[in-house]
Design brief:
Strand order of the largest sheet: 8-9-10-7-1-11
Order of helices and strands: HEEHEEEHEEHEEEHEHHEEEEEE
């Protein structure tokens, strides 16, 4: 795939293009884990933040794996099939997450974990014209009102799994493609009109959207509420690793820092401090220079203010920006 997707790196596509067109991004550097066995749903239900017990085959969710003190390990997308649950995990996280998950499989648990990343490639098609592209390829639009819905489909004579959602707040689909057919599928989709999106481009879109990434916004310094991943957490399920801490933070409104977007006038190093009235209130975790401008993500103390609060980075004023992928609203149980 490297030779086919390399051309995408030479061209920058602005995020605004997703409102009128469609792109395809090769995300085969992300990992894919298969979880099998009769206890697979119960097991993942107990090891991560979302509710797996209510998921039927063909459905899915985003979920966060956290430590016992609710520090983030990874944000994963899960797809439930008849035979297994597929976990789409962040780049360079597969081995460490498998090792961590294996610690919680006990002798009587009927659960099998397997890294199947080498067997499949992941392509993401994104943009307002995604459904038009699928129609051109002979695939009926999936249930767009049901995020994470997925099914097997055929494109160019190849059977693959197609899922609603892009792992960003942009309409589109994830395609899990047999590795042996990846080059063929890429060619068919680009020939149908999808514009290739390079890895640096994806990183720019990720930062503008606010999707946190391990090693940057997802580390042992932060919990999923601080990262704004409220949509990945079930507050109605039973115990799971880190549940006590997360429930307490919500109940007592104890989130001490939050993830925000920034638009800067110059590129800065990650780790540089964010200031308010000459006092440090946070730090930058990601920053990228693109043709659209310089964008960054930063954790900022909750006491510093809300969206549009003007802070200082590298001596320059910039407001805190809301981001479409995340939210900072506390969970309120329905009466």
């Amino acid at each position: 795939m490297d030779s086919l997707s390399a051309a995408a790196e030479a061209t920058y596509i602005p995020l605004q293009f997703s409102q009128t067109g469609v792109v395809i991004c090769d995300r085969s550097n992300w990992g894919l884990i298969s979880v099998r066995g009769e206890d697979r749903q119960r097991y993942l239900h107990n090891q991560s933040t979302n509710d797996f017990q209510q998921l039927k085959s063909g459905r899915g969710c985003e979920t966060v794996f956290v430590t016992s003190t609710a520090r983030t390990i990874d944000l994963a997308t899960a797809y439930v099939t008849d035979e297994s649950i597929l976990l789409l995990v962040s780049p360079c996280q597969t081995t460490s997450l498998l090792t961590w998950l294996d610690r919680f499989i006990f002798p009587l648990d009927r659960v099998e974990l397997k890294d199947i990343s080498a067997d499949y490639d992941l392509f993401t098609i994104m943009g307002a014209k995604s459904n038009d592209l699928l129609a051109k390829l002979g695939v009926d639009a999936l249930k767009q009102d049901s995020k994470y819905y997925h099914q097997l489909a055929e494109i160019g004579g190849i059977t693959l799994r197609i899922a609603v959602g892009t792992d960003l707040a942009i309409p589109g689909y994830n395609l899990i493609v047999p590795h042996s057919a990846a080059a063929q599928i890429w060619s068919v989709i680009t020939a149908a009109g999808a514009t290739p999106l390079g890895q640096k481009n994806w990183e720019s879109w990720r930062i503008q959207q606010g999707r946190p990434l391990p090693g940057k916004e997802l580390t042992e310094d932060y919990n999923p509420l601080e990262a704004g991943l409220w949509h990945t957490i079930s507050f109605n399920k039973g115990c799971y690793i880190g549940q006590e801490t997360i429930a307490r933070l919500n109940t007592y409104k104890g989130v001490k820092q939050r993830l925000w977007g920034l638009k800067l006038n110059k590129l800065v190093d990650t780790g540089i401090k964010v200031e308010l009235e000459a006092k440090k209130v946070g730090k930058v975790t990601s920053c990228i220079n693109s043709l659209e401008g310089i964008f960054a993500l930063a954790y900022v103390k909750t006491t510093a203010g809300e969206a549009d609060t003007v802070v200082q980075v590298a001596g320059e004023d910039t407001p805190l920006l809301n981001l479409p992928f995340i939210t900072h609203k506390y969970y309120q149980p329905e009466n």
